[in-house]
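Anyone opening a protein record will find just a pair of labelled lines. A complete record is shown below as an example.
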Amino acid sequence: MENVLRPLIVIGGSVLLTLLIGWATDRLLCKADQRHPETPLWGLLRRGRIPYQLLLCAALLRGSWDSARVLQEYRVGIGQVLTLVLIGSAAWLVIRIAAAIVETTYTRYARVHRDAARVRRVRTQVTLITRVVAAVVGVVAVAAMLLTFPAMRAAGASLLASAGILGIVAGVAAQSTLSNMFAGFQIAFGDMVRIGDTVVVDDEWGTVDEITLTFLTVRTWDERRITMPVSYFTSKPFENWSRGGAQMTGIVYWHLDHSAPVELMREKLRDILRVCPAWDGRACDLSVTDSTPSTIQVRALVTAKDADDIWTVRVTVREQMIKWLTTAYPHALPRVNTADAALPPGLPAPTRSPDGVRPRRVHETPRAGR
């Protein structure tokens, strides 16, 4: 009877005590979250309740398994498994706690500072710091698990002796990976590009959606995702439209006839922009920038608060101006000139025959095909 009750008491008591402590801790975190709604720390710490309970259960079972007196022939193996679970759950819990602290710090910073560019920069740094912490804790946990095996402890001296050679070989083999990792740190703390920045890379316009230690994802305007190594942004030039402020200036061109009413177009441009919510009101201008024998080039300059709004302003101005010219001044649109060329002074005007064909002068040579 004792052989049955003892294991049940040890295992059942460990599980029951784990659930009881976990429930009490979760209730305390809930009450702390309700009393302090200004900080998300307590709510974020609740995400670690699973590794917390797993850690408690593994620790209780590891400490009381010898008292259970069950499966004594597998005592060493079971103890090894419980130790591995204990190390893994502890690493999991540390990662969750670190992520909660970092996220809380970022949330407080975002509430205090209203500068969107600075907040995006801190967000990029926080994301990379969280991933670095997770990677370091994971490596330490795996190393601790391996060192629990006697064979690994015996081979520790030889591993340390060959660490220099292995480091050189690994560095050469993972040269591209290491360069991307250092480029990720350079991007995060050098403030080159941030999450949410509008960039142009390889003639593709989009928004930075994700930054990791090795790659960067750009979401294009048509919802595509371009994944690029972070070393690209440290070795090649690219356009960052959000650097130093998101405000932008846009240009709209028209090719019109020489008789286009430029002054009236300036007034119409102001009327269009007054009712366009995407225009930020900083500047607007309309000028003739070039001319050809048949047309003139008219340029409108408009401004907006970011890249999305400047696109809206440009298409609105282009569409409404063409619609207005087509309705009110159709002669201002470009057309093919089929009138006879003006002759130099002193030459008589050519006469036409009754059938409408201009007679050829004596000194003129007939054209091919006539």
About this structure: Confidence is low (pLDDT under 50) at residues 168-175, 359-370. The longest strand covers residues 279-291. Residues 65 and 126 are 41 Å apart (CA to CA). The radius of gyration is 37 Å.
